[in-house]
Amino acid sequence: MHYTLHQLQVFAKVVQLKSITKASEDLHMTQPAVSIQLKNFQDQFDIPLTEIVGRQLYVTDFGMEIYQMAEKIINEVYSINYKTMSYRGDLTGRLQISIVSGGTYIMPHFLSGFLNKNKGIDLVMDVTNKLKVINSLKNNEIDFALLSIQPDGLNVNEEILMDNELFVVANRKGKTSEKPLTKSDINKMQFIFREDGSGTRYVMESYFKKHNMQIKKQMALTSNEAIKQAVIAGLGVSILPLIGIRNELLNGDLKIIPAYGFPIKSKWRLIWLKEKKMSPIAEAYIKYISENKGVILKDNFSWIEKFNHKK
User: Fold this and answer.
1) What is the DSSP secondary structure assignment for residue 35, as one 8-state letter?
2) Which of 20, 82, 180, 292 could anchor a disulfide with 92, C-beta 3.0 to 4.6 Å?
3) How remote is the C-alpha of 146 from its chain's centroid?
4) Is the Cα dihedral 152, 158, 162, 163 positive or negative?
5) Which structural domains are found in the chain, ordered by start?
6) Do the beta carbons of residue 255 and residue 184 sit within 8 Å?
7) Distance CA 311, CA 301 (A)
8) Are 148 and 102 in contact (CB under 8 A)?
9) Per-residue model confidence as pLDDT tens digits over 135-152
10) How distant is the alpha carbon of residue 201 from its chain centre?
11) Smallest Cα–Cα separation from 105: which of 53, 64, 46, 165?
12) What is the CA radius of gyration of the chain?
């Protein structure tokens, strides 16, 4: 056998993401290039590693065994690199974080300074929905999770990063009045939801349930970005976090509709398991956040306070 480290890395990424398309995006390769590397790796085995059923990629039992060994090899190679850098006095290793999609508007700002100071750290950040983030945390697969809702049944520590406010939003043609929408007004509106398992969906449904409201669901989409475009196109209204609609508000593509019980308020929180044995990198990151949170908020999110004063 003459497989390469690159082939192992490509195969591992395909297994992790269950998709050649997603693997190519994550590896910054073209889909044909990923397919070629996967085929070259497969050709060295008589037993299939993956199979396609319909349009879905599945990993065989044999493929999972090879994947587990490939991960060990890849991790050992990383260890060699980290060990070399640690001898130079650098902080080295992996920092693994899982965040909900809304967190993409804030998490990079809380990471950039830390990563720029510590070039030996490899960031692995998974962007997914609330349920998958919680499962990754529960299974001890990550160092930290970023959520706007504290998970039930888990013994965790947390660092509050900032407030999270959600508003009813419509496109520029959306009808507004000086008085906030009543529950009756909201009941008549066509709402665009996030998919099951998302934090935004959970907040919306909790609000409607709390106020005994029967909402008309126009459609369900898999990202806040898709919802924004649907609202701009006039397909309905939605409930979105202020942090993610700054540009659309400034451009006039979206507007906030004053409504009964809004904004819905929560907190963006960085969470980790209490019983987890923290790596030196994870401990250093917690210290960095604690010491620099105020500056990060002032430099990157002061616009929120200004915007609130305008309303």
Assistant:
1) H
2) 82
3) 8
4) positive
5) 5-84 (1.10.10.10), 90-162+267-310 (3.40.190.10), 164-266 (3.40.190.10)
6) no
7) 17
8) yes
9) 999 988 899 999 988 888
10) 15
11) 165
12) 23
